[in-house]
Please model this.
Amino acid sequence: MRLSYLFTKIALGALFALGVSVAAADTYKIDPIHSEVSFKVRHLGLSKVSGRFTRFQGVIRLDEARLAASSVEVNIESASINTDNEARDKHLRNADFFDVDKFPFLSFRSVAVREVAKGKLEVTGDFTMHGVTRRIVIPMTALGGARGPSNDYRIGFEGTLTLNRSDYGIKGYPGVIGEEVAIALEIEAVRID
Model:
């Protein structure tokens, strides 16, 4: 009987500890209306063409006491690519580039979050595009938090990184379209109470 009681106490203690750990992280849903996932890529080495993805969703679990326990998950609809040119966007959706019927999503799943300076983070995770997954590090700046007009609590982050499109099997039009793609992230997320 005493052994059974001891096991029960250990199990309850473990569950309590787990519950405290989970409760310490706040969950935020990315607000796509006030966020942006955009990019720039060279054309003929002469100019930069800008674009963005208009449909995406994501969840941020932020543990301010232990940032290393935080996490991010994002899914972006590849067909939502928009460069403000209908013919070009249609081409970008076909097999020469994103092949959206075969690869409908770009995704990112974090594996580590590290504060490198006050308000400066490195978010390491697995990024999947065009069926290829690679581990990347996204430098992010925490912009703080604020109450929205509906009294909901929101947080903001911004970051930039550069990817090589060939690393993900997107190799169409070499010499015409640059290999390096500059990505800019402007993220606003609302806390889920």
Observations:
- The first helix runs from residue 2 to 24.
- The helical segments are 2-24, 86-93.
- The CA atoms of residues 126 and 135 lie 4 Å apart.
